[in-house]
From TrEMBL, chain A:
<dbReference type="InterPro" id="IPR018967">
    <property type="entry name" value="FeS-contain_CDGSH-typ"/>
</dbReference>
<dbReference type="GO" id="GO:0051537">
    <property type="term" value="F:2 iron, 2 sulfur cluster binding"/>
</dbReference>
<dbReference type="GO" id="GO:0005737">
    <property type="term" value="C:cytoplasm"/>
</dbReference>
<dbReference type="Pfam" id="PF09360">
    <property type="entry name" value="zf-CDGSH"/>
</dbReference>
<keyword id="KW-0411">Iron-sulfur</keyword>
<feature type="domain" description="Iron-binding zinc finger CDGSH type">
    <location>
        <begin position="28"/>
        <end position="66"/>
    </location>
</feature>
<dbReference type="GO" id="GO:0046872">
    <property type="term" value="F:metal ion binding"/>
</dbReference>
<dbReference type="InterPro" id="IPR042216">
    <property type="entry name" value="MitoNEET_CISD"/>
</dbReference>
<keyword id="KW-0408">Iron</keyword>
From TrEMBL, chain B:
<dbReference type="Pfam" id="PF14518">
    <property type="entry name" value="Haem_oxygenas_2"/>
</dbReference>
<dbReference type="InterPro" id="IPR016084">
    <property type="entry name" value="Haem_Oase-like_multi-hlx"/>
</dbReference>
<protein>
    <submittedName>
        <fullName>Iron-containing redox enzyme</fullName>
    </submittedName>
</protein>
């Protein structure tokens, strides 16, 4: 029986975009303080220019961020 | 009434707070003012309206008629006898108007070349389509120039859809299966607050309207908006309520989400520049983060999976996305053109002081 709230995290590396995170995991600051997670599925910034890091704000599209080699 | 209920319950009007725009909507509003009595034959009147219209998408009488008909399924548009919702005469009228509306959209909406029906290719095609620069931008104007009156006008336009945010796409949930359904539900659950009614996006938007002194009851500002703003919602309702158009509603949601995060950041900047605090900008700030998640789910898991599972729907997925961009582009251009010419973007001016004297949300129902 899988419990959705205790499901192992699964991270989708979105092409040219963020890391999409589903499942439970601890998102914390370097000091170990929790970072508020407002929704069940979150997108973490991978391009480095989000204004709401560690979350994605869609700006990767404006700067032409790509994940291809 | 408990505070939480005051904040999350949407008020309604006992009689429509807006006017008809032509013979067809006159007749409909007249019919809806009483319980059904017989089977009114409305097709000839609809044909007259369709023949008189030079452009169905921008036709006030036809778009208001469709808005009233869909409103019977949503509620809060015209408070009337519930028997009207499935009355054969009104269903027949809706199908008749929808056929012409859909045909017009398919005629005028430019649809890009079709990608392979794979999740990755469909997501890439939708991101490419939605990433094309379409000229002057309403969001950039709002970030840099809009004044408080213009911000209020902007919310008046947005309120037609956003006070019912997510509802048109929810019609599609039982009309989808498997991966596409799971993706749609994942997005919609977040739209509806993830189980917390005070975080429901439509509720957050209502709070922003009150923050600008606007009446957050549904339908308060129907008279103020042009036909194309009604057409934007009518199109979503049509795509969502017709199972054969499930590809179009999936594509529509993907395009909507993909063109939301960055503009919402700019809208928020415009409201902060005019002195509004986080209580007002919450709606847009929330969408910067939420829609950066939703666009990924909508592109690959909703539209992409649907194309893989039902390749025959691929053309409609792209059509729905392109239709979203085209019609919402027209609605945005209408506002921007009026403002840059120094005019109001509203069809009828806001009555000064009306907002201040309006009852608080939920005080009437």
């Amino acid at each position: 029986m899988s419990d959705l709230n205790r499901a192992a995290p699964r991270i989708v590396a979105c092409p040219n975009g963020p890391l999409l995170v589903r499942g439970e995991l601890d998102l914390v600051t370097p000091e170990g303080d929790p970072i508020e997670r407002k929704r069940r599925t979150i997108a973490l910034c991978r391009c480095g220019v989000s204004s709401i890091k560690p979350f994605c704000d869609g700006t990767h599209k404006a700067i032409g961020f790509t994940t291809t080699e | 009434m408990a505070l939480s209920e005051t904040l999350t319950k949407q008020g309604t009007f006992p009689t429509p707070p807006f006017s008809a725009r032509g013979p067809l909507s006159v007749r409909l509003l007249d019919l809806l003012s009483a319980a059904p009595d017989g089977d009114p034959h409305l097709i000839p009147l609809a044909d007259e309206a369709l023949q008189a219209a030079t452009d169905i998408v921008h036709d006030d009488d036809i778009q208001l008629a469709l808005f009233l008909l869909y409103g019977l399924h949503y509620g809060s548009v015209v408070e009337t006898d519930d028997a009207w919702e499935w009355h054969p005469s009104l269903i027949a009228l809706r199908l008749h108007l929808e056929a012409a509306f859909e045909a017009e959209l398919r005629r005028v909406v430019p649809v890009p070349a079709l990608p392979e029906p794979s999740s990755a290719a469909v997501a890439a095609a939708l991101f490419a389509l939605t990433g094309e620069d379409s000229g002057p931008s309403l969001s950039r104007y709002i970030a840099a120039k809009a004044n408080r009156e213009q911000l209020a006008e902007f919310l008046v336009h947005r309120s037609i859809y956003t006070l019912k945010e997510a509802d048109p796409h929810s019609w599609a949930i039982p009309r989808l299966t498997g991966r596409a359904k799971a993706a749609m539900v994942e997005i919609q659950s977040d739209e509806y607050g993830g189980g917390r009614p005070e975080r429901m996006h439509a509720t957050i938007f209502a709070g922003m309207m009150r923050g600008l002194g606007l009446d957050d009851r549904y339908g308060s500002y129907v008279d103020q908006v042009p036909a194309v703003t009604l057409a934007s919602l009518n199109m979503m309702s049509m795509f969502g309520l017709n199972r054969r158009l499930r590809g179009a509603i999936a594509g529509h949601l993907a395009a909507f989400e993909m063109t939301s995060s960055i503009p919402c950041g700019l809208y928020s900047r415009g409201f902060r520049r005019n002195g509004f605090g986080q209580d007002v900008t919450w709606y847009f700030d929330e969408h910067v983060e939420a829609d950066a998640v939703h666009e990924q789910i909508a592109g690959r898991d909703l539209a992409g999976s649907l194309a893989e599972d039902e390749p025959s729907l691929l053309p409609d997925i792209l059509f729905g996305a392109a239709a979203c961009l085209t019609v919402d582009g027209w609605a945005g251009a209408h506002i921007l053109d009026a403002w840059t010419a120094g005019n109001s973007a509203l069809r009828v001016p806001l009555v000064t002081g009306a907002a201040a004297s309006a009852p608080a949300s939920g005080s009437e129902s």
